[in-house]
Input
Amino acid sequence: MPDYGADIAQRNADACLRLMLADPIKRKLGALIAYVQYGIDLYYMILDGQTWPAGGGHRPGQKLPLAFAAAMLDQPGMRRVVSNATFFHEDNLLYRSGKSELVLFGTDRGYRPKPLEDRYWQAVFDYANKGETSGFKAYRDPYGYIDGGYVPGSGYQYCCISQPWKGEALACRLMPSLKKLWNNEAFFEYVERWVTFGTWSQPDPCAPADTTWSGYGVTFGPDGKGGCIRDTDTTDGIGRFPRRHGAEADGGGRYSEFQAAMWDAYRNHPGTSPGE
Output
């Protein structure tokens, strides 16, 4: 097994989708038993205190095999954990914006003892002016207009998350009982948007990062009233990243040709569940 969560997530989604093909049961029974056992193992790890919260590319991919095992076995304890737990990676890097009602990428959980607004702008500023950023790379937009991260549609959102999530979302759509257990409609809305449209960065009234940090709170960043300093320079478009709107549609690292083919063939299939 790979030692990085994004690679594990890609393989877990590949395996789940592969089990859904119409092979004779004898040909895939061994793989099915192993995958369900994997889900059982994850369940008992959770009972022992294990979680997989937001962690960039480190922690995706564990919810799917657990949910699959719970659906196949119809085990009440496993079903409750999948539906009610708040510690899965897939449930911690998205939120519904109060500004637009859209599902946007990013989290307010981070690793430095600073307010989200400061942490977000430090990452954006560092990348804009130094070409790099230290620390966490998936802070949400503190104002709720656009996808988070130091540049929307990059970082963990691009390298490690959106494509593996695509495979997970398709598996859930093809098995309605699995989607019901997943219990997070925002996840499916985000995947649809990423695949069909890409990054969300408009409309956005906020001024982009300046070239010096002394401009923080003056020419960019917080306005001191709970909002952002507004962008008044229309020469390069309004907002922090106007040219990123719609970028990277269906793109991203950990891309699976198998998942892509399955999506194209079965995205609109009504799906079936165990026993149907």
